[in-house]
Write a structure and sequence with these properties.
This protein has one domain. The chain is built from 3 helices and no strands. α1 packs antiparallel against α2 and α2 runs antiparallel to α3. The longest helix is centred in the last third of the chain and has 25 residues. It is flat. The N and C termini lie far apart (about 55 Å).
Length: about 80
Amino acid sequence: MTVLEYILLGFLLICAIAANLSKNLLNAVLIFMSYSLIMSVIWMLLQSPDLAITEAAVGAGVTSVLFFLTLRKVHQLRGTRDE
């Protein structure tokens, strides 16, 4: 393994622990997004571009949008006024 792969695995481990320990839900979602992006880079380094694209699209894209919508529904994310 190269030094870059070890660094990415370290960041992956840090993101996993930080997402679990985060008290703020918005921070946890942002950390989860970065986890998915790092994972997609690791998939590219492992020469699996189909999994990298899927991880980036679903993990960092669709799932994060669903998390943001859920946070807005439970009023943890401040957006437009719901009056």
